[in-house]
Amino acid sequence: MIENYKKYLEFLNDKLTTFFHKQKPYIQCKEGCAKCCQNAEFPFSQIEVIYLMNGVSKLDDETKNIVADNVKKIKEAKRNFKGEGKFLYDCPFLINNKCCVYEHRGIICRTFGLLYIGENGRTQVPFCCFQGLNYATVLADDKSTISAEKYKALGIEQEPVAFNIRYGFLTGSDFEKKFNFAFGEKKPLIDWFVETE
Ligand code: SF4
Ligand code: SF4
Question: Could you tell me the distance, in angstroms and rounded to a whole number, from the CA of residue 110 to the centre of ligand 1?
Answer without folding.
Answer: 11
